[in-house]
Amino acid sequence: MKKYILGIETSCDETAAAVVADGREVISNVIYTQIPTHTLYGGVVPEIASREHVLKINQVIKKALSDAELDWSDITAIAVTYGPGLVGPLLIGVSTAKALAYAKGIPLVGVNHIEGHICANYLTEKKDPSSQVPQDDKLSPPYMCLVASGGHSHIVRVDDYDKFTIIGRTHDDAAGEAFDKVARAIGLGYPGGPKVDKLAREGNPQAIDFPRASVGDSPYDFSFSGIKSAVLNYLNGAEMKGLEVNKADVAASFQQAVIDVLVDHTIKAAQDHNMKTVALAGGVAANSLLRKTMKERAEKNGQIFNCPELIYCTDNGAMIASAGYFEYESGRRADLYLNAVPNLKIGER
Q: How far apart are CA 146 and CA 281, in angstroms?
């Protein structure tokens, strides 16, 4: 008998809910994005995000159940993101999930947002054979996963469905954060990642030699503040000299430098830890060059490559439902004292 998990996600600026069966089969997936609202301010405003979540969360959950053609009696458990993320938005999701669990008499499971991103990889399985997404129909731990988003850049060894070991991490800016800051500097606006990706296709990635940073004796760690500063210095220098800047070349060269580091470190980590599979997760995993480059490098090294479909790279309820299923199967339950933990770390329980 299938186990249906309702996943709720409100860690930042997407109000999302989904129903997933047995951790892999997406029955419904509803996302209300606040991007148009926050674009006016050049980034996410936490207070506004919280108010938007309050206005939309009940509608999104109701639609997720309706789209799945299920009612509350069919739901095995409710999974909700409780960290990391913005504390105000997190509290909206956690409070709603606790109220529903209590009112409906359904078990509650707390989910780590980053672990949810990793579990999005299980949602790519058994799709249409014509899909352009690289897939391993039997994806299962252990494998090496790069988690890259606006707030996180980690290389994670996935030891089991609910066990994770951090192999590498950023020492300053996350990759997605660097994309957003560079996008703002060259006048692309918010959200920066997709806009840099699009503009970079028109530029020459070898036009400007931006640095590829390494972190001392930590071969798997990242540092992106240096390349961000290098881009700003390049733009400021050109302005002072009255030189015209080719924004497409800046975007392409910056993107290439970041992706070179992300791919090199992840592939090395997989090789050193004898992992036959490399996976991507997080918002930056939607970047077309990253997906292409990681696939080529992994296959060149005889490794299997896996990544979520684009809809599951950005924040969504399906990934939370998937992670919640594996937490539920391991016997973990949350009580009504569950609270938001904005700085929750991978593997913390």
A: 6
